[in-house]
Amino acid sequence: MTDSGPSLLSLRLWVKRERQCLSILERALVLLRNSEGHSEPEIELNRRLYFCLLTASRELFPESDLAPVQECNNQPDPDDEARAKREHKRPDFQWVFLDRYELDPERSSKQFVVECKRLGNPPGPKWILNLNYANHGIKRFKDPKHAYAKRFASAAMVGYWQSMEAAEVLEEINEESHKSDLPDLLLTSSWKSGGVTHLEHTFERPFDISPFRLRHLWIDLRTPDEE
After folding, report:
1. Among residues 31, 110, 115, 123, which one has the fewest Cβ atoms lying within 10 Å of its Cβ?
2. pLDDT digits over 153-171, tens only?
3. Full-prediction pTM beyond 0.70?
4. Number of domains in the chain
5. Would you call 181 exposed, middle or buried from its count of C-beta atoms within 10 A (0-12, 13-18, 19+)?
6. Assigned domain for 1 exists
């Protein structure tokens, strides 16, 4: 193992891969929106999104060999001397690629991580979707027990927006996030009715790498009676 940091070419490759993954993710969400049935639970939406991701990959980057992996465990970190708790945790999606420009071979496996959660009215008194988005979504990128995207400067979340007005959803998430010292989630696009809305925030984590940038893509799956 070497103490050298990533090379400039390695950093540039990460930016390229990140953009590619985000483009595929956004296109896949549109494909999901254009399909039938949008009120399913998260596990079913994720399964459908997986196939949309494959279609979007072939459509946007037909020469690429990279494919997303669903519900794959966090990969081992070379800084951990033994199997860590985070290795038992499974983000919803990961793209995994081998960085040929990384100076340290043990750090040459790179992952772009995506976590997905539903948004809107609670389906029951004990399952509050918008609070769940903060506590079991955003927080998993900061909590050492999950440490999603631990060695990376960015990742993404998907919001399956099934009901409620946008301002109400965002307010509930931000209020809950404040309890964990997480900053407000901010719009980086206009609200896209029937499409993909972009939000993001940057925050510090108790492990490398910080600051960390988390992008959010919310796909509007609402029907007129759910808005």
Report:
1. 123
2. 999 999 999 999 999 999 9
3. yes
4. 1
5. exposed
6. no
